[in-house]
Amino acid sequence: MSTDAVDPGPVFWKGKRILIVSPEAWGAVRLSKHHYASKLKDHGAQVFFLGPDSTKENEIRILSESEAQPVLLFRPPPLRGIRFLPQAVRAWLEARQMRRLASVAGGPFDLLWNFDLYRFRWITDRTYARTRIVHAMDLRNPAHFPGPARRADLVIVVSATMAKVLVEQQHKVLRISHGWLPRERRAVTLPAFKEGIRVGYLGNLAMPVIDWSGILKIASDHSIVQIHLIGPLHGTFGEDTHMDPTVEARLRALPNVHLTGPVPFNEVPKWLEAMDILLIAYDPEHADRNVGHPHKLLEYLASGKVVLSNYLEDQADLEGLVVMAPQGRRITPLFDQVLRELEDLNTPGLQAKRKAYAMANSYDRKVAQVAARLSALWRSSDH
């Protein structure tokens, strides 16, 4: 299993036609698959982005096209019950779907970069997509991974823990940790903050795995703390998800909890730098989150500020940069310790180390790793 490779240079991507399939729609909030799409476009690739299936569409079509973003493709949901058909039939239907997507997009794709384990998982025909990558960012059901990986040409995982799920496909695996996207810094006017220690949580606030009981306890027990919850409350990335109304009511009832809503991507760094403590708080009863790989971690580290997190197995080596709860434990008992040691945890030296770690994981480096592996794969297939 490879973790790095020689960079063949951004020129590798120039002119390549790439279809990115994502479970999260293109929008104001950006995750890894959106950053990969933007970076590939920056390197000269022609990038098409297929988000979640749209119930508003009757046929495959381009719904949005601009120089500032990839070409957005939309398709209606497939017929219900397809998963019960024989495997060969499913593969044929997916190949036909890929042909239709290529027709709408103006020709075959050089690369199908699939961040969604549940679409095109049976496809083996490479007529309209020369190469297929399966890229796993989260693995909430490990049993669902080997099938799509078996039919892929390259499998990308963000951690060694994910790779352990695959037995027969180890020769296809490329491990690339989450990336961080530097962006142009613009003048941003933040709201007037109330006096106190500022604690930030960034992300989709509708996620059911967030440890709201722990966050509520921190807010209730520490009146000197001002907690800023930065992100959408209800529905994002094309999903129909909502925060528990009981939780929302309890949060709004606390004077030191502030629901900011989603923040524009380019303003996120300014918000995080204004905080004193940043939280990653998942309910430890959700076992999949004990080995989670939150994309927000690099955004946090890029701010330089101390991060208090529940246990993240694949980031356990970040001791000194992240204050991490023991496995299976909540972050709440550690919060008082972080408050006591806050000045030492946010020294200029430690902040510089956190920022350097984020910079070392830029998306330029990530796409270079993929380019090197694909370059070798295509050379071998041409012989």
- Percent range of helical residues: 25-40%
Rg for CA atoms: 22 Å
Strand content: 15-25%
| Side-by-side strand order of the widest sheet | 3-4-2-1-5-6-7-8
SSE ordering = EHEEEHEEHEHEEHEHEHEHHEEHHHH
Q: Which geometry do the CA atoms define?
A: globular
How many E-type strands?
14
Mean pLDDT: 88
Class per helix and strand makeup? alpha/beta
Number of helices: 13
First-last Cα distance: 23 Å
**Oligomeric state as shown:** single chain
Point out poorly predicted stretches: 1-6
Instruction: Note the main sheet.
Output: 8 strands, mixed
Can you describe this structure?
With 383 residues, this protein is α/β, with parallel strands linked by helices. 31% of the residues lie in helices and 17% in strands. The strands form 2 sheets. The chain has an 8-stranded mixed sheet, sandwiched between helices. A 6-stranded parallel sheet has the order 11-10-9-12-13-14, sandwiched between helices. α9 crosses α12 (348-359).
Tell me the layout of helices and strands:
Layout (H helix, E strand, L loop, with lengths): L16 E5 L10 H11 L3 E5 L10 E4 L6 E4 L12 H19 L3 E6 L14 E8 L9 H5 L3 E4 L2 H4 L9 E3 L21 E6 L9 H10 L3 E6 L14 H8 L4 E5 L6 H6 L3 E4 L6 H4 L5 H8 L2 E4 L12 E3 L7 H9 L1 H4 L2 H12 L3 H19 L2
Parallel strand pairs: 1-2, 1-5, 2-4, 5-6, 6-7, 7-8, 9-10, 9-12, 10-11, 12-13, 13-14
Antiparallel strand pairs: 3-4
